[in-house]
Amino acid sequence: MKLVRYNQLDPAYPSSFSGMIDKLFNESFGTGEMRKFNPAVDIAEDDQGFEIQVAVPGMKKKDFHVDLTEGRLTISGERKIEEKKEGKNFHSIETQYGSFSRSFYVPDNVISEKIEAVYEDGVLKITLPKAEKKVLKSAIEVK
After folding, report:
1. Where are the beta strands (DSSP E) in the chain?
2. Per-residue pLDDT at 115 exceeds 60
3. Largest Cα–Cα distance of the chain, in whole Å?
4. Those residues with Cβ within 8 angstroms of residue 27's Cβ, 6 or more apart along the chain or in another chain
5. pLDDT per position as a tens digit, 32-64
6. Residues 100, 69: contact at Cβ < 8 Å?
7. Sheet with 72-79: strands ordered across
8. What pLDDT score does 84 carry?
9. Against a cut of 0.70, is the pTM above it?
10. What gap in Å lies between CA 23 and CA 29, rounded to an integer?
């Protein structure tokens, strides 16, 4: 079984025309709820387990929350914009700020007690080890 991204309704695509207009004005004028973003996620698998890498530079370890509930791994956090701007006049800000949440369904063969998360060099790396495959083999005597 593969590690599968948890799909939920995407707030980036409003379901109605009025929702689209609201989204346009809220994003254009900075009103409404805190901005959200989706950091890039890479998922790899080998014989020992899965590895999830989340690209979130500029954050601190305490800004993350990683939770495994009923087979669903949720990675969330918030990147706050630096309020101290003395002497700086920004001409462009392309860095995404705000809160994020990404969820993935975890296969049954992952050992949940041994999941590890490490944040280093702007990448949150989560390791999900697999249980060893048991090869059931027995010789059957022919009578």
Report:
1. 4-5, 41-45, 49-55, 64-69, 72-79, 98-105, 116-120, 123-129
2. yes
3. 91
4. 35
5. 445 677 889 999 999 999 999 999 988 889 989
6. no
7. 4-5, 98-105, 72-79, 64-69
8. 65
9. no
10. 10
